[in-house]
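User: Please write out a complete single-protein record containing the residue sequence and its fold in token form, without commentary.

AI:
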Amino acid sequence: MITASPSARLSLPASDWRELWRHAITDPAELLRAVGLGDRTDLLPPDDAGFALRVPRGFVARMRPGDPRDPLLLQVLPQRIEHDRVAGFSLDAVGDLSAKSGHGMLHKYDGRALLIASGSCAVNCRYCFRRHFPYGEEIAAASHWREALAGLRTDPSIRELILSGGDPLSLATHKLEELTRGLAELPQVIRLRIHTRLPIVLPERVDESLLAWLAGLPLQKVVVLHANHANELDASVDAACAALREAGATLLNQSVLLRGVNDDADALADLSERLFAAGVLPYYLHQLDRVQGTAHFEVADATALALMETLRARLPGYLVPRLVREVAGDPAKRPL
């Protein structure tokens, strides 16, 4: 496997991720100015459709200046079309609320439980399937994880715990340590899976304290990253990925197929190759979850299947992600 160079492993970003988080761009007009499109405020809706802009400045720096169709910009810039109400698009497209099995806990699939660890993200992606989720009522980290851990104790079948959100790595490392200390009482849990976009959009989060916590866990560790386009990965992301692997984590990536962002074979092939160069294995390519406000990103199933045929012809099998859709009530992701 091609991996980041040894020097990259030794050059983790020194900046405090919390300070960078606080200085993220939250004003759409400022974002347009930052990418050389300050005169294109006509692109912006009258409001944010109830889903505020947030994007780290380091991620903005990877966008192409002066390009209103840049694939990274399109993922985060509020658009007028988000206000349209489209049949078949709902507030809870994947059935999260009906899968609740305790405070902040979802139980959809056998042997696995998912904790809504945090409601915060470093970047607010406009296609987010939880953009309408009531995070204020459903955070597993509240009360020092006590309710979540109590729920896990009642089900000895759960072998894998999934941390999701929001982004679980938005929590301070000491909060994550609280959870994993509690897991020591649950010998049936053998694997911790962390779904996170932070090492992609804010790689400074992968700091020494996080790595020490991860390396010390007596569990199998899987970190599922989320990148949709090869341009999202740069040297700082390579260094973060190398450090996570050295801490004992298996790195996978899941993407969403998005119209105008990555809905062509070249973009998807480039993404798979770039991920593998960073030591990350392509895992899932999700068809869009049909959440209200995201219809403009949807790609037809026929187009998606044709893209997968092209990828299978161009790439080795281990670089072809599985095309799936999440359907509320299904016992697993549904392959297409």
